Amino acid sequence: MSRHISAFAIVVPSYDDGIAFYVKRAGFSLIEDTNMGDGKRWVLIAPSPDAETRILLAEAKGDTQVAAIGNQTGGRVGFFLHSDDFDADFQQMSAAGVIFEEAPRDEPYGKVAVWRDPWGNRWDLLQLKS
């Protein structure tokens, strides 16, 4: 039996805002953007086109979902972007305006820096030691 996470959702203010940040600034790939009618879209992104796990950008509807934007993990780092070239990714993302909350640091498991999206969702950019 084989199982894996195929996708998870991040609630964003709008589909276009999510694409503008994650694709144009953070360097993710737009995998799919399908109009589902009635203002709904199926928007999948991934760190690279061949990534197995995708992120569904979910446009917030209603007060409860709007309140969850940027706080889906209660303020903790909830998402982990692994890189095989930390320095290049850090430079590209920084140059594109991604906000890093700290300078890169070395930990026993590898190199890491915390970054966030414009709404407050916190991520680790990390390169594991081999």
From TrEMBL:
<dbReference type="InterPro" id="IPR037523">
    <property type="entry name" value="VOC_core"/>
</dbReference>
<feature type="domain" description="VOC">
    <location>
        <begin position="4"/>
        <end position="128"/>
    </location>
</feature>
<dbReference type="InterPro" id="IPR004360">
    <property type="entry name" value="Glyas_Fos-R_dOase_dom"/>
</dbReference>
<protein>
    <submittedName>
        <fullName>Uncharacterized conserved protein PhnB, glyoxalase superfamily</fullName>
    </submittedName>
</protein>
<dbReference type="InterPro" id="IPR029068">
    <property type="entry name" value="Glyas_Bleomycin-R_OHBP_Dase"/>
</dbReference>
<dbReference type="Pfam" id="PF00903">
    <property type="entry name" value="Glyoxalase"/>
</dbReference>
